[in-house]
Amino acid sequence: MLHGIIRRLLSAIPTLLIGITLCFLIIHLAPGNPATRFLNPSQSAQTQEIIRERFGINQSVPVQYGHWLERVLFHFDFGYSFYNGKSCVVVLISALKPTLILSFWALIFALFVGVSLGIVTATKADTRFDRIINSIMMVFISTPAFWLGLMFIGLFTIRLGWLPGSHLHSLYYDQLNSFGQLLDSVKHLILPVLTLGLPLAATLFKYIRTGMIDALQSDYILAARARGIRQSTILWKYSLKNSLLPVVSLLGVIIPALLSGAVIVEVVFALPGVGRAMVTAVFGRDYPILMAGATLAFITVIFFNMIADILNMVLDPRIRNGSGGL
After folding, report:
1. Its pTM surpasses 0.85
2. Residue 206 CA, distance from chain mean position
3. Where residue 215 sits, what CATH number does that domain have?
């Protein structure tokens, strides 16, 4: 098992390098550059060259990439934002908290709803309840996140006035007591969490339901019932454990899906997270922020794919016994 983990760590290095290299090339080869915001025809050629040199874009793309990679590998320095002059690490760390809060509660919501409904509908397969829940979940799977968020804002914020549709806090947040601040934060998170969590819950629901139905119809479950084992034990100890294996494998996909979904949700609900910072950087040609965010995304994907592989080895003895092929 340890040998397999070491192999994955070593294979992750070239994967990360290839990924960030492609991102760097795509970002820098796109039309336009950040210096155009500060240039005008009346400026002298010398002034324009000084501005380009200030942004570090007066050199060829391979030279720029070599300098950037050297700073990142040896100094963990992603540079400074072209937009506000702040360190990229500082900008992303300040934006990371709202994204983590949103992603965490969306994941908790998705796991609770997806797993619980998957178990219940599997025990009531082909009933009216099962067909209704299946239809509802298919709607959430096929609905774009931005449209779902806009519909929630239109219904619960504009039409009914029940919940706020933007930002993490109200303007009077600092004037509230501790309980009032908590309640205000919860009210602001409900719609973003639903928008991000419902499609993910629907995906988990499909996997859990299918796995539970297959497990409940398997020979070892029939044998357990013949021995008089209680239904609750069959569901939780035998069926659910095997049904969770595909979900654990999805962990490496679920986390990137949360991050990519958070980009849309943060823009729709005006949340000051990493997703919104990345979108702002795209429109502002803020290369250092874009590359810092892309590197963070690649590391996150690789890390959680490795965690998913390790959990699969722990849960499935067949994989653990052949862990050399991890």
Report:
1. no
2. 19
3. 1.10.3720.10
